[in-house]
Amino acid sequence: MLWNILGAAAFAxxxxxxxxxxxxxxxxxxxxxxxxxxxxxxxISGPDPALEGAVAAIxxxxxxxxxxxxxxxxxxxxxxxxxxxxEALCRAGRVSIVNEGE
Length: 102
Fold this sequence. Notes:
Blueprint: H1 2-26, E1 39-46, H2 51-63, E2 70-78, H3 80-91, E3 96-99
Parallel strand pairs: 1-2, 2-3
């Protein structure tokens, strides 16, 4: 009976390892050409309480090498609170801000 439990635990561990490996394959790095730069632009209008979380998620992809890009925020009429978050992210050097029409 002990061998059955150990065998089932080993099998479950292998299945989890296989799922983890397959998940890793879905996050293959995005590769740009030699003369190509990737810019990710977020168009923001109105209130956006999730902006900092979205930027943090993109930075996580950038930090682990999955997505090498610059992050741009385009202000299409963001409210004052969102604009303050955008400016704080820009001052921290995490993003650049592009105004409407640029």
